[in-house]
Amino acid sequence: MRIFKTLIETNLYISIAAVAFLWANVLLLGIQHEHLIYLSLQVFFSTWFIYQVSRWIYFKKGAYAHPQEWVLVWFQKHPKFNQATIFFSGLLAVIFTLFLKWETILMLCFVGAISVLYPVPFLKPFGIHTRLRDFPLIKIFLIAIVWSVTSVLLPASEQRINILERKDVLLVFAEQFFFILFITLPFDINDYEGDKRTKIKTIPTVVGVRESKIIGAVIGVICALGLLYIFMIENWRSISDVYLSEWTIGLLWLMLLFLQLYTFFKSDKVNKWMIKIVYDGSMILYLLIVFFTLR
C-alpha cells in the first residue's frame, strides 16, 4: 500500500496507466511499435505534467475538501519537489514532442489544449471565471476524448496509418471512448457530495447516484459488445495470423464485470485513493491481459 500511496501522491500512477493503455491499444490493433518509444515518453511526461499542474492549482486554491487526501498531504509536505516535477515533466514533454511526426503533434496540440484548459479559468480576462470542467456534464466526456485520442489515434498517427484503410482504428477509438467513460463515472459518483456542495453539475449530481450506476451498467454492456466485435474484426483482418485468443476477450469481460460490481457496491463508499487504484489500475491490467494472451 505504501508503494501505491507514493505513486498516487506523485501522480506517477496515472502516468504509468496512460502509457500502459496506449500500449494495450497498440497491441490490440497490431500496430508496428518499433518507433513508439518517443511517443510513450511524451505521453508519460505530458500526463505527469498535466496532473501535477491541475492538482497544484487545486491545492493552491484550497479546493481539496478532505484534509487527509493523499495528494493534498503530499503537496503540503513536499512543495519544492512538486514544483520541480512540474517544471521537469513539462520540459521533457516538450523535448520528446519534437521527435514526433507533425500529424501527431497536431493531435497533441488538440488534446493538450483540452487538458491544460480543463482546470484553468481561461476566460478570466473577460470576467468569466468558468473552467472547462465547470460546464454542465461535460467533464467526463472531455476526459474520454483526451484519453481515447491519446491511446488510439496518436500511435496510429505516429505510424502514419490511414484510418480510412484501417477502419478498425476508429472502432477501437470508439470502444475506448466508452471504456474511459465507464471507468471515469465512478470518480464522479465518489465525488458526489463534494460536487453537490460546490454545485458542479456532473452526471451523479444531476440524475442521482443510483441512476448513474445504471448508466454505468449500460456503458459497460456497450464496452463488452464492442470488445466482442473488435475481437472478431481484428482476427478477420489478420486471418493468416490470428493473434487475439478467447482468453483476451474472456479476461477483459471479467475485468469489466469486476469493475461494474465495484461501481455498484463500492464506488460511493470507499476513499478516493481506492477509486484511483481500481479504475486507473484497470488500464494497466488491460495491457497485461492483452500482452499475455496474444498468440
Largest sheet: none
Low-pLDDT stretches are: none
* Class by SSE composition: mainly alpha
Chain-averaged pLDDT: 87
Oligomerization status of the protein chains: single chain
Tell me briefly what this model is.
By secondary structure, the protein is an all-alpha fold. The chain has one domain (2-293). 74% of the residues lie in helices and 0% in strands.
Task: Report on this structure.
It is a single chain. With 295 residues, this protein is mainly alpha-helical. The chain has one domain (2-293). Helix content is 74%, strand content 0%. The protein has 13 helices and no strands. The longest helix is centred in the last third of the chain and has 29 residues, at 209-237.
